[in-house]
Design a protein that fits this description.
The chain is built from eleven helices and five strands, in the order αααααββααβαβαβαα. Strands 1-2-5-3-4 form a five-stranded mixed β-sheet. β3, α8 and β4 form a beta-alpha-beta unit. The protein is elongated and about 120 Å long.
């Protein structure tokens, strides 16, 4: 008996339905999740919104949000992304500039605070970091006799330490004389203005001739009694107001000096680096 030939199995053209069904199932699941998210606890959503708003107002943007918006993250998780908004770039530049200025003069502050410890403890000298730079303030009695502009020989040891710090830096230096409000009128000085300016010049000459600080790095100012740091109504207050300040200017302080506009472009470029 002849055997029947087996016919080839027909190709299943409906296999695509399996993949299609899987896709529809996943799509359905996606929309279910979206729907559930949209109808979540509105109270919790409001709480989250308020927390985020508070964080932005305080500048405490988390690392995740910062990275999402293209910012950088520091070592405590604070980001700079929001600084890229209106005015943000300028704020970043200003912050970097302040940090650079502080780092630049901080070593000198530490060295002088240590080497002039005795003078600081006795109240003859005050050292502080101001917005314009490092300020070394000499009490009048530490430098001059009353009503005079000749620097005491006993002050040279302290002055030498300040000069050494200045010579290690490229920063400009400003000498400022201050008096109390008691008027002076002598054969040499007709007013407190002349006395305060003369004392500034006396300091500048010592730094230039004895310690070789370039004259083009230095400037002087005489303020008489117009910039007191204490009340002129008491003996102690007037004693504090009679002083000479040596300011090692940072970039911000130097901008107030004549000719500083010539370097504005260079300073801006450095701040952006």
């Amino acid at each position: 008996m002849a055997r029947r030939k087996k016919h080839a199995a027909h190709e299943n053209h409906e296999r695509w339905l399996v993949s299609y069904a899987d896709f529809i199932t996943l799509l359905f699941a996606f929309f279910v999740v979206m729907f559930a998210t949209a109808h979540g606890d509105k109270g919790k959503a409001a709480a989250v919104s308020e927390s985020v708003k508070k964080a932005f107002e305080e500048g405490k943007v988390t690392a995740l949000v910062s990275v999402m918006f293209g910012g950088s993250v520091d070592n405590v998780g604070n980001g700079s992304a929001m600084m890229k908004g209106p005015g943000g770039a300028h704020k970043v530049v200003e912050e970097k500039k302040k940090e650079r200025q502080l780092v630049e003069l901080m070593p000198s502050l530490k060295v002088l605070s240590t080497e002039l410890k005795k003078e600081i403890e006795t109240g003859k000298i005050i050292i502080s970091m101001e917005q314009r730079g490092l300020a070394v303030s000499f009490k009048e009695a530490a430098l001059f006799a009353s009503g005079e502009d000749v620097v005491s020989s006993e002050a040279y040891k302290s002055i030498a330490k300040v000069a050494d710090a200045i010579n290690k830096l490229p920063n400009p230096v400003r000498f400022e004389g201050h008096t109390d409000s008691v008027p002076i009128h002598t054969a040499r000085f007709r007013s407190n203005w002349e006395l305060s300016a003369a004392r500034s010049i006396a300091l500048l000459e010592i730094f230039a001739t004895k310690y070789a600080v370039p004259r083009d790095r230095m400037s002087i100012g005489g303020y008489a009694d117009t910039a007191p740091i204490d009340s002129n109504d008491t003996i102690d207050g007037r004693a504090r107001n009679r002083r000479c300040d040596i300011i090692i200017l940072n970039e911000t302080g130097a901008l107030a000096e004549p000719g500083s506009h010539l370097n504005t472009q260079e300073q801006t470029t450095a701040a952006n680096e």
